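queue> pop job 88
queue> type: inverse folding (structure -> sequence)
queue> payload:
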């Protein structure tokens, strides 16, 4: 809607400029050569402003879309990463359900396919007490987000740091590389 208002403003400016030009011609203030020169120059300025404005609006919309997508994929990545290597309790299930919705809305076709495979694996694992590997999807999301943000490429698996549960014997932090799984 804002674009229509801007177009109307440009049109109004052009009409006023044309009216002023015609009025000055009829009053004999300008001659035809000066009127034609000023008209062409005025139209070029208005057209240039209009084109620049449209390009700027298009660029701003694309930047906002990109920013929103990056934010959503970042949230999805963090949900998935925080649910890996954890027992699937109510909180983890809610994170995984939100993750699936976000990926289907903002993910690439490959990420959506990997998420569907992950979801099917999670359902199988819940029945059969198995494990599901998150690595391929986590790496794909990490790589895409880093590329969108202009960050350096990182190789290797996503590394998860998990501390023992409260009530467990005290000990060092547990880190798992390349085996982000839940089951």
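queue> result:
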């Amino acid at each position: 809607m804002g674009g229509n208002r801007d177009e109307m403003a440009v049109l109004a400016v052009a009409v006023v400029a044309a009216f002023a030009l015609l009025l000055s011609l009829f009053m004999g203030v300008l001659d035809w050569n000066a009127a034609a020169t000023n008209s062409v120059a005025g139209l070029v300025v208005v057209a240039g402003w209009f084109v620049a404005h449209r390009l700027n609006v298009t660029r701003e919309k694309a930047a906002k879309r990109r920013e929103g997508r990056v934010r959503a994929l970042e949230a999805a990545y963090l949900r998935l990463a925080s649910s890996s290597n954890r027992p699937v309790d109510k909180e983890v299930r809610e994170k995984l359900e939100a993750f699936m919705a976000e990926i289907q809305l903002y993910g690439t076709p490959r990420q959506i396919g990997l998420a569907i495979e992950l979801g099917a694996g999670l359902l199988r694992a819940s029945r059969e007490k198995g494990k599901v590997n998150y690595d391929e999807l986590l790496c794909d999301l990490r790589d895409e987000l880093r590329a969108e943000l202009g960050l350096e490429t990182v190789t290797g698996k996503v590394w998860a740091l998990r501390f023992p549960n409260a009530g467990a014997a005290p000990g060092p932090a547990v880190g798992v590389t390349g085996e982000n799984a839940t089951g």
